[in-house]
Amino acid sequence: MKLLLITSIFFLLAASDNWQPNQAPASKHKFIIAAHRGDHVIYPENTLAAYKEAIKNEADYVEIDLRTTKDGELVSMHDGSVNRMTNGQGQVKDLTLAELESLTVKNKDTTSTAVFRIPTFKQILQLCKNKINIYLDFKAADPAIAYQMIKQYGMEKQVLVYINSAPQFSGWRKAAPKMPLMLSLPDSVKTVAGMGDFITKYQPDILDGSYKQYSSEMVKLAEEKHIPVWPDIQSAGEGAADWDKALAIGLSGLQTDHPAALVKYLKSKGLR
User: Which of 90, 213, 235, 257 has the most crowded Cβ, counting Cβ within 10 A?
Assistant: First the structure.
């Protein structure tokens, strides 16, 4: 689960009077599905296999977590350490790419003989190009280096960046002014007026947060300002009852742990 942004961390960011939100990457679907850490119902999270499964199951985005190795390479790993997800120990930032690539990622299916590895950002960009957009949860990396790699693979129009701190926000605005940046609506914002103030002050291109904190009036305000609202709904027990609530308030996208099931649900509603 991503940490929600705390409003106060952005107090140094200056607002621009003529600001207009950058557009999110284009999609052929009206309702956007972001596969949380890939489609990890079958395959381990943040692996190429999980991303391939999300592509196969018609998700619009794969959400990946970007971190930097000891020798400056970019890899996808949610946690700061490799302890939970691999047969190794230690912090990503303290391990070289070669050391990380020697590890195997744990598989929930203990009967499987398949071997999974920590993927590099380069591998993910190659896999996703012209197949699926990338929802880049920017955990620990340099915006300029990440954007240079995105440009190298011609993926400028297929990536949005989820921001976790004020330096990341200003770093991305400097390195890539047209890159769409996603901010979480803080838990403290519970009204239309409060959301309007947040948008005016921090100028998000896309809004995230928990789907439970949005009302239909808040979603309508975001639409008027041309800001997509694609919040988190992911959980082990996530299902049709939750998706019904999301549709009822007018949401146009969700980050989910069950992309294949959500696609099937939307098709049953005539929305895909």
Answer: 257
